[in-house]
Specification:
InterPro entries: Tom22_pln
Shape: rod-shaped
Order of helices and strands: HH
Protein name: Mitochondrial import receptor subunit TOM9-1
Organism: Hibiscus syriacus
Largest sheet: none
Distance between the termini: 98 Å
Number of strands: 0
Number of helices: 2
Helix content: over 70%
Radius of gyration: 36 Å
Keywords: Membrane, Receptor, Transmembrane, Transmembrane helix
Length: 97
């Protein structure tokens, strides 16, 4: 059998219980604490995102060209070593003590 709709007197008593529950001081303190936590979390997330963007941009501007230049220099050294070995010159390596 289908459930019968609640009577208006039952609905009023439910809203009375709910209003009594929300009027407690502990509930209002809990809501205030939850709002504070949400606000601080949002600010922290925004500032962390800004810091990550700054760090990423700095890395791209300063370190990526350095890495590219070091890679080019290593390739150039390998090419010189390969050409020297083709021409018959003794390979130059690090000096031994």
């Amino acid at each position: 059998m289908a459930a019968q709709p609640k009577r208006s007197s039952e609905r009023r008593s439910d809203s009375g219980i709910l209003s009594k529950f929300t009027s407690y001081a502990i509930v209002s303190r809990g809501k205030l604490a939850a709002n504070d936590v949400a606000f601080v979390s949002k600010k922290l997330l925004c500032s962390t995102g800004k810091a990550a963007w700054i760090a990423g941009t700095t890395f791209l501007i300063l370190f990526v060209p350095l890495i590219i230049e070091m890679d080019r220099e290593q390739q150039f050294n390998e090419l010189e070593l390969q050409q020297a070995s083709l021409l018959g010159a003794p390979p130059t390596g690090p000096a031994h003590k």
